[in-house]
Write a structure and sequence with these properties.
It is a single chain. The chain is mainly α. The protein has one domain: TerB-like, CATH 1.10.3680.10. 75% of the residues lie in helices and 0% in strands. The chain has helices at 2-9, 19-34, 41-55, 59-75, 80-89, 92-107, 114-126, 131-143. The chain is globular and about 35 Å long.
């Protein structure tokens, strides 16, 4: 699984429908959920819902994708690998929507931790988004 993501980084452009793009987003969601040192059922369910909504997955398929992403995230030393895949797979407007989904994961446990905030700033930058884009995405996520 990790090898396929590494091969992906050397491959031609992807689309959001590629399995590697789905796995990269799921792994990034897991990384963000774990950033505060806690990873609970609410966060897992939030990730499953976000993946289901983003890719049209039934709950069982979203759970399987998240489970695979948990392993990948634990084995991956940095966040850049995930964001690079997403940046290559999604147009700018879609990346702003991804930030909203990522904020939903952050907010799902009812807490905004400094480590989560810091990681979200890094992710926004790596996705080619501004702090304003991220703040707007957070505001939309808070309304849902």
């Amino acid at each position: 699984m990790f090898d396929s993501l590494l091969r992906l980084l050397m491959a031609p452009a992807l689309t959001r429908h590629d399995p590697e793009a789905k796995l990269a987003l799921a792994a990034l969601m897991v990384r963000i959920a774990r950033a505060d040192g806690s990873y609970d059922d609410e966060e897992r369910e939030s990730i499953d819902r976000a993946l289901g909504a983003q890719f049209g997955l039934v709950p069982a398929a979203a759970g399987i994708l998240r489970s695979e992403a948990e392993t990948l995230e634990a084995d991956s030393p940095d966040t850049v690998r995930f964001t690079r895949v997403l940046k290559e797979s999604f147009p700018l407007e879609a990346r702003a929507k991804l930030m909203e989904a990522l904020w939903q994961v952050v907010l799902s446990d009812g807490n905004r931790d400094d480590d989560e905030e810091s990681l979200m700033r890094l992710v926004a930058s790596l996705l080619g988004l501004t702090d304003v884009d991220s703040a707007l995405a957070r505001q939309r996520a808070e309304k849902e």
